Amino acid sequence: MGRVVMYSTVSVDGFIADEHDQPGPLFEWLTSGDVPLDESGALKVSQTSYDYTRAYWDEIGVTVAGRRVFDLTDGWDGVPPAGVDHVVVVTHRPPPDGWDPKAPFHFVNGIEAAVAKAQELAGDRLVEIASGDVGGQALAAGLVDEVRMDVAPVVLGSGRRYFGSVDAQHLLEDPEVVQGHRVLHLRYQVRR
């Protein structure tokens, strides 16, 4: 089974979006370099960030996200982001009206069931869990193996927290650190 990684870009004060679900300048690092990160050419990062991020993206088989993110992105128009094969949406609601049932999206009730479905679909590849409430639920349930953060030099002051509403202590190992342009890439193993 693939490892489970909680991931997002985050402000230095721990937020992944403001109170209106807007990332503001958090993703500036994704357009501040000269190396194309994907085929679109819209994302350009430093060589260091490319080496780190591209290798990570290539390992992801499935992304787990909450219904809030799914709705905010309009379900990525039925195409999983960043070349991922499948998206598992944690939700208590059915797919939206008119949703293409052939799209590689799976609507699952509950974090444990969502991670189990994602691991089944991912095989030996990584399962990425979006940070925020869903990521925090997975961490609290002991389902996360690794925490990755792309820390942007931004203070948002308030908004959506990286770890959601986690209210218990969780220990992480010492970080692996990679410094890119306008971003600090951090990778922590979850202490068991």
UniProtKB/TrEMBL annotation:
<dbReference type="GO" id="GO:0008703">
    <property type="term" value="F:5-amino-6-(5-phosphoribosylamino)uracil reductase activity"/>
</dbReference>
<dbReference type="InterPro" id="IPR024072">
    <property type="entry name" value="DHFR-like_dom_sf"/>
</dbReference>
<feature type="domain" description="Bacterial bifunctional deaminase-reductase C-terminal">
    <location>
        <begin position="6"/>
        <end position="177"/>
    </location>
</feature>
<protein>
    <submittedName>
        <fullName>Dihydrofolate reductase</fullName>
    </submittedName>
</protein>
<dbReference type="GO" id="GO:0009231">
    <property type="term" value="P:riboflavin biosynthetic process"/>
</dbReference>
<dbReference type="InterPro" id="IPR002734">
    <property type="entry name" value="RibDG_C"/>
</dbReference>
<dbReference type="Pfam" id="PF01872">
    <property type="entry name" value="RibD_C"/>
</dbReference>
